[in-house]
Design goal:
Pfam family, one: PDU_like
Strand order of the largest sheet: 1-2-3-4-5-7-9
Helix content: 40-55%
Structural class: alpha/beta
Strand content: 15-25%
InterPro entries: PduM
Protein name: Microcompartment protein PduM
GO molecular function: structural molecule activity
Number of strands: 9
Length: about 160
């Protein structure tokens, strides 16, 4: 293989990776069950799943793979795709916060506002300082420092405590 051919191949790969980097595939849970992650990973860098339901969240938290959508999410993570789950705000009190917060997923509500999951028992300024506006879900028994509460107000972060 000569240098010119090698350079052309490298340029083509770089071009395709740059095209893929900005693309997001948006699917509902029903569409995800029918989609092929292996085909999507070549065209899209990230996957946004809309209208996520509680049974799927429970399966993700328990690492259960009886649902095709859960299998697809795990497969997409294995391929290195960035995954964002969109869920309704009224589900925030019902999700398994500790387990889901540890997964490499990002979250948003139905309007696209970011949701952050905090699984520790203490919320300090350091936890708030790295966040932008959005919703921060806390455990029921999470202690919030005064400085963290003030920083949340300043940064337009809504604190929601699970019940």
């Amino acid at each position: 293989m000569n240098n010119i051919l090698m350079q052309r191949i490298v340029d083509e790969v770089v071009f395709r990776l740059k095209q893929r980097a900005g693309k997001t595939l948006v699917l509902t849970v029903l569409q995800l069950r029918d989609a092929s992650v292996q085909e999507s990973v070549h065209q899209y860098a990230s996957l946004q799943i809309r209208y996520v339901d509680l049974p799927l969240l429970r399966q993700l938290a328990e690492n259960e793979t009886s649902d095709r959508a859960a299998i697809q999410i795990h497969e997409a993570l294995a391929w290195g795709m960035h995954i964002q789950l969109s869920l309704q705000r009224h589900f925030l009190n019902a999700i398994e916060l500790k387990t889901l917060a540890r997964l490499p997923l990002s979250w948003c509500d139905e309007q696209g506002q970011p949701i952050y999951l905090h699984h520790d028992r203490l919320l300090s300024y350091v936890d708030i300082a790295q966040l932008s506006s959005g919703i921060l879900v806390l455990q029921r028994k999470c202690c919030v420092t005064a400085l963290a509460r003030e920083a949340a107000i300043t940064r337009n972060i809504q604190l929601i405590r699970q019940e």
